[in-house]
Amino acid sequence: MKSKKVTGARAVVKALEGHGVELIFGYPGGANLPLYDELARSPIRHILARHEQGAAHMADAYARATGKVGVCTATSGPGATNLVTGIATAYMDSSALVAITGQVSRHLIGNDAFQEVDTTGITIPITKHNYLIQDGDELFRSIAEAFYLAGSGRPGPVLIDIPKDILLGQCTPGDAEPPQLEGYRPTLKGHPGQIKRAAAAIKAAERPVIIVGGGIRTPASYQALVALAEGQEIPVVSTLMGKGSFPNSHCLYLGLYGYHGRIAANTAITEADVIIGVATRFGDRSTGSALHFAPQAKIVHIDIDPAEVGKNIPALIPIVGDADHILGELVAQLKGASHPDWLARLQRKAEKHPLADLSGEVTIPKVLRALKALCPDPLLVTDVGRHQIFAAHYFPVDSCRSFLTSGGLGTMGFGLPAAIGAKLGCPDRPVVAVCGDGGFLMTCQELVTAAVEKVPVVALVMHDNCLGMIRQLQHAFYGKRFTSCDLGDAVDFARLAESMGAVGITVAREADIAPALARALDAGRPCVLDCRIDAPANVYPMVTGATLMDYIE
Amino acid sequence: MSQKHTISILCNDTPGVLTRISGLFSRRGFNIESLSVGNTETKGKSRFTIVVHGDDRVLEQVRKQLQKLIHVIKVWDITPEQAIEREHALIKVDVERGTKGELLQIITAVEGRIISSSGTLWTLEVTGDPGQVDNALNLFKGYNIVETIRTGRIALER
Lengths: 553, 158
Known about the structure:
heterodimer; A: alpha/beta; Rossmann fold; six-stranded parallel sheet; 21 helices; B: alpha+beta; Alpha-Beta Plaits; 2 domains; five-stranded antiparallel sheet; 4 helices; 28% helix
């Protein structure tokens, strides 16, 4: 049956509705205005960000928190380039994002028209795939493909660039049939022979360790990983992205490994005879020098992306496929085992190297511990910097999809907009963003979005008047020559919050911390805690040499 | 061990696919030695032949990263022993007095052809496997070469 012709903009909105989209984050401009005209007549809720970067982070975090596909939109030219940081962030952390950008009309493309940039050209290296729509009749199929690509296999951002004349012109909406893509067939089931080899290696292991990365995103894979670790009594270390992939309060969890890893975790890697890497890409922040990584270990690498297997660290037993399936198979094939000596040795290491208790009236660990006491299972979002590593060490996260951070790209400014997107996706959960003053100032205008759209997120600004991680690096590697890391003390974050329609609370004394947190969590409105960190402290351990055991703490 | 590999890529013939493929090489630091692309027997499908330098690990990454491109349908490594490889070169020579005979001998020896001549300027063509084309260009070196151009390699399994 031939469908009736509709405008391109109508077709886009119909397609989005067909894919179950409830929320779209964006910013209007000349080239995507036809889309906005249609959105106004759709049940899809539009969240007007105050900067396109914010819209992209919101959609990205919405996807991370819910497991659905996040959608954002921006106009051509500067709208599209402002999305770029957000798209790259989603790409590096494999987040299911669909970005729809307006483009100048087809007859103007290539003429350096007003607000024209080569959006698809710019975003090729930071998207899983992208489309420049050349014909209105391609719209429906391209959108269907975009949703399928973004959410399947290894998730990632997909961009659709639509010229304005196509949005305004007539097209035929197609059927929403599942796309057939000859060049895209993600492997979901692990190879049975490889799983068998992995099971044998795990069975023979005396000092096994599981490294978990950010790819554990479903309750089923989360449970399967717990079952494997418990059944075989294997200690678990995580990457920063993998912090939310395993219950942190579990006795088998040794914490973060790598550049800022816990000593027990890095010891486990260094002494392990078998490493099972699950949904991790063995990134350089974690492994340090690839040459010196895990010198004694046979490596089993489980990942859905074949290109990640063997890319950074050679794997003896690669298994390509979905962690749900592979972990489930391993659990089914293995009988129970225990490694009491190995666990005891690592336990002693952990006891010998506890997390430092920092002195000071208001410190980041004190704030985080108070938060955990008041609110044990929030959706914790971080920005990027020293506070991010503090959050990873000092705030145990104990449920699936509950720790959102910009791990791969390390995007300052991610925290607040990401918290807003996550809260809109999970309105019943408390959502708390931990930010530094530097990163918070990069996207703080999104407080207005939160206030206007009534999104009650809590932002904890660890206000130490400096770019902490920069200062720490200059302290360690640049002879303590501190340059351009001093932010000054001009900003009063509580008043800044109030001026944008949020609640602002200043926390200057230890005794203020818990009452302020309680008030913020109950505020029912967006709330900023200006945590005045009186004695800024570096975050340790930190690896300073070639191996993971060359560290300062 | 680092060596030359010939990679064949079957992909959709769609705008931007060349950018996606060549961009992937530059972005991931793989060196393209030559690249050629053209239509295939199937409508809507192109085939690239890319010569790349690297060890086995680099080659594996090249293959896997290419395979991740949605428009790429198939990537495979072509072993020279089991393939026919061809390159094509055009050579413009200013023929000096007294060298005509030698040049004609070389052209015959390398199975080349004179495509056009005007005055003392001859345009020659040579086709062959990469070694043959190298050899021919070497032989012509001693003469007055005005300009040369050569295609990338194309390859097909036997």
